[in-house]
Specification:
Hydrogenase maturation protein HypE (chains A, B); about 350 residues; 60s Ribosomal Protein L30, Chain: A; homodimer; HypE (chains A, B); PurM-like_N_sf (chains A, B); PurM-like_C_dom (chains A, B); Phosphoribosyl-aminoimidazole Synthetase, Chain A, domain 2; 5-stranded mixed β-sheet; alpha+beta
Chain lengths: ~350, ~350
């Protein structure tokens, strides 16, 4: 991951990153291609965009925004969930599958409405386990005000899948006049983070039992559609939103910088991390900036509206620790830098590899 | 599978079947729960409907039909594809994933528009294989006039999945005034089948190489949205449509009988099966009536419009062998019977178990 560099090194990298197209050199698919970082971007650009390329897909947001013949706009999104273990402190693959797709729709500016559910089940899964996951999905849908309206079940032989994978797709309605786009982002805009970093990824890691750590924290899995609406009401000129899932906040701000060709300057002192999560990360040598969240999102808002956005978030469950974590700047274009607590500056690169596979 | 019974036995079963609610006795999920037959129905009723129950889901069609605030209606559907092998004569998991979801939308009366794609990939899948599948998806989408607009990729470790699973969800627009429902079906209506039975399931079986048979036929995987529109234009009072995938035509007509509480009388002599497919089925002791199709659907049309529906289908690629295979009757309520070539009658029951796992 990122390490401190001199200013000359930073300047050199700026040029390199800007000119770089993600390349795909591997002959086989690796875990890194599913990790949400650099390899994922290369796979998407070189395999999926190349074959499927169309205007809706090319936007590459969390959801496609689609125009109906009558002018109404829909958001449409999908995610597959392969988290291991399927139950972990604070939630399950069922919660994730519903909340994750709701969140992709919400950060696209849509009001989530309908969810589909596709199950791939390994033969032998206890029926009680399936019932529990399905109940988690139903509860999550009710909590967020969406309906699960269509589904499909496939069963594969023992050993052909790992317990259960769930795909959800979702449809949301985009209110008239609402527009969120990285093209609206301007230097001086503030980067707001809705909640503390890293709880989901670390909760899953600990639930695997590979580590001899006892820690008192749970996944942040939750639907953020209510939080998003609060931000949009308090900060009506909000530019762009993204949920900080795979690859964490570090990946989201890198995508922002790359999309806008502007710089993102993070203030290390402001980055919210629960102390127990931070402790677990430190023991494992993992930077919480790259750890997956399932209930936190990044909002870019005009400077003048940032305090209102933060206040609105803090008044709601799941937003209590919202804060401004950085600012958009002219320099360095296309890159993210961190002002460290010691007064230095380092480049925050995109994630390479996959330190935490199957966390969602 | 179904065997000949006396009229007394038939009468007894009528009462039993009518009073039966599908029960779920198994403690673990089995392959049969994913096969589209009796066990699938029990799992759906007892696990998914119980937890997710809402008006849109309860309709239990191939797709949910959803009302937008402005009166426009959408169809929304999903399917996961786990076919093994991932490439087979006539197609691949990529073709299936696009065509299958298009077909679910089409038989719901919708014009398919947008598709999502969620990949769960086993680490080590050759990149060239992935590229080929993705290209098959792109080609299928272009052929059917839909766009793949959003997607997701997860990668799991070697052994945690079998090469690649693909989920697609799809959105279609339902034209104003169009209504298809089993509630519209009346005694005397004709059962039209758009194409010959069993080619897909048998092509996948043979591609597995478990059988020492050489056969000259390919999967019927295709998008049927054009065929569906032709039927609806030629037979505007078409009552109900369903694609005959998992569980085959036998399962579809059983669902029709159960939904309507009417009888379905099939004429064995008219059931279209390509001779090479029929030969392979005979060697394997499999009834083509229960074998999955990926490009054939059942349409229930009023008697007077049946000839026009058949003529319209026969004029299009994939519909050349369309024919009337049976009739809706008052008796026996809720059951399907077959008039055999020898003048007898036998009950055509729902599929029990899964003779052909992972054919889609």
């Amino acid at each position: 991951m990122a390490r401190p560099r001199t200013q000359e090194e930073v300047n050199e990298r700026i040029e390199r990153v800007r000119r770089r197209r993600p390349r795909l050199l591997e002959q086989v698919v690796t875990l890194a291609h599913g990790a949400g970082g650099k390899s994922s971007a290369a796979l998407t650009a070189n395999v999926f965009l190349e074959a499927f390329g169309n205007p809706a897909l090319d936007a590459l947001g969390d959801a496609a925004v689609l125009d109906l013949p009558d002018g109404q706009r829909l958001a449409f999104s999908t995610d597959s969930y392969v988290v291991n273990p399927i139950q972990f402190p604070g939630g399950s693959i069922g919660d994730l599958a519903v909340n994750g797709t709701i969140n992709d729709l919400a950060v696209s500016g849509a009001i989530p409405q309908w969810i589909s559910a596709g199950f791939v089940i390994e033969e032998g899964l206890p029926m009680e386990t399936l019932r529990a996951l399905v109940q988690d999905m139903a509860n999550a849908a009710v909590a967020a005000g969406v309906q699960i309206v269509t589904g499909d079940t496939k069963v594969v032989a023992k050993g052909a899948a790992d317990q259960v994978f769930i795909n959800t797709a979702g449809i949301g309605l985009v209110p008239a006049g609402r527009r969120l786009s990285s093209a609206l982002v301007r230097p001086g805009d503030r980067i707001v983070l809705s909640g503390p970093m890293g709880a989901h990824g670390m909760a899953v890691m600990l639930a695997r039992g590979d580590l001899d750590i006892e820690a008192d924290f749970v996944s942040d899995t939750r639907a953020v559609n209510g939080l998003v609406e609060a931000v949009l009401a308090a900060a009506p000129d909000t530019r762009w939103l993204r949920d900080a899932t795979r690859g964490g906040v570090g990946t989201v701000v890198n995508e922002l910088a790359a999309d806008t060709d502007l710089g993102v300057v993070l203030d290390e002192d402001t980055l919210p991390v629960e102390s127990a999560v931070g402790g677990a990360c430190e023991l494992l040598g993992i930077d919480p900036l790259y750890v997956a969240n399932e209930g936190a999102f990044v909002a870019v808002v005009p400077e003048a509206q940032a305090p209102a956005a933060v206040t609105a978030l803090r008044s709601l469950p799941g937003g209590e620790q919202a804060c401004v974590i950085g600012v958009v700047a002219d320099d360095p274009p296309g890159l993210v830098v961190m002002q460290t607590r010691f007064g230095g500056t380092r480049v925050v690169d995109m994630l390479v590899g996959d330190p935490l596979p199957r966390i969602c």
